[in-house]
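User: Predict the structure for this protein chain, please.
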Amino acid sequence: MPELPEVETVRRMLAPVVTGRRLLGLEHDDPARYAAAEAAAGRRVRDLRRRGKYLIFALEGGFELVVHLGMSGSLRLDEGAHTRARLEFEGATLFFNDPRRFGRLQVVPAGDYRTLPTLARMGPEPLSRAFTARVLEERLGRMRRPLKVALLSQEPVAGLGNIYADEALWRARLHPERLANTLAPDEVRRLHRAIRAVLRRAVELGGSTLGDGVYARPNGEPGYFQIEHAVYGRAGEACPRCGKRLERLVLGGRSTHFCPRCQVR
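Assistant: Here is the predicted structure, written as C-alpha cells:
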C-alpha cells in the first residue's frame, strides 16, 4: 500500500499540474467507489494537500476531493491497463489506475471526515512541528497494543504503513511486539528520530517501488528507497547493522521484519 513517502511524492509532482485548474469531468467504471467524487466536476482546485496516506484536492466552494490509493492505486499522467477513473482538468488529464480496486475517490465538505474514520482520528504529521517526542509519548502511552500495530493504526502518527514502520523500528532498536505503552522516554525519543529520518529519506528518493511494480510516480518512474531497505522484505538475510539473520513474524495480519539481536523484545 502506498504510504506517506509515496503519496507525498505524488502530491509534489501533481500539485503544479492541477492547482488553479478546473475539473471538467470525471469518468469511471465503478459507481460504488467513485460516484461520490462526481460532485467535484466543475470546481477549480485551489490546492493539493496530503494527510497521512490521503491526497486532498481542496476545491472552490468549500469542498474537498479525497483520494485514497488503497492497496494498489496510483494517479498517472497516462492511461494504463487498470485505469478505473479519468479526471479531466483544464489542460491536463489524470488517470486513476488501481489493479486491485481498493482505492476510493470521495467529495466531502472541507474538513468533514465523518465518513472517513481513519482520516478523522489520524495523529500528527510526522514531518511537521506538531509531531514531537512528547506528543508521541503521550499517544503511545494510551495504547496497550504491540508497537507495530499501534503505529499502523495511524493514531500515534500519520502516514506510517508496513514498510516504514518496520524500517523505523529497526533504526530505533525496538522490537515490533513490544507493548506501545511500555516505552521509556529515551526509547520514545529514539523512535521519534527514526520515524522522521526514515520518512525524510524515503521522500527524497521518491518512495519505494516493490517487486510487484504497482507503485510508480505519476510519470511512470519508480521510487528508489527500496534499495536502502534495512529489514523490510529481507527475512533470512543478514542485518546490515549486526549481521544477525533477519526474521519475519505476522502482527495484526501484516508481515513484520526485524533483527532479533538489534531489536530485543
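The radius of gyration is 19 Å.
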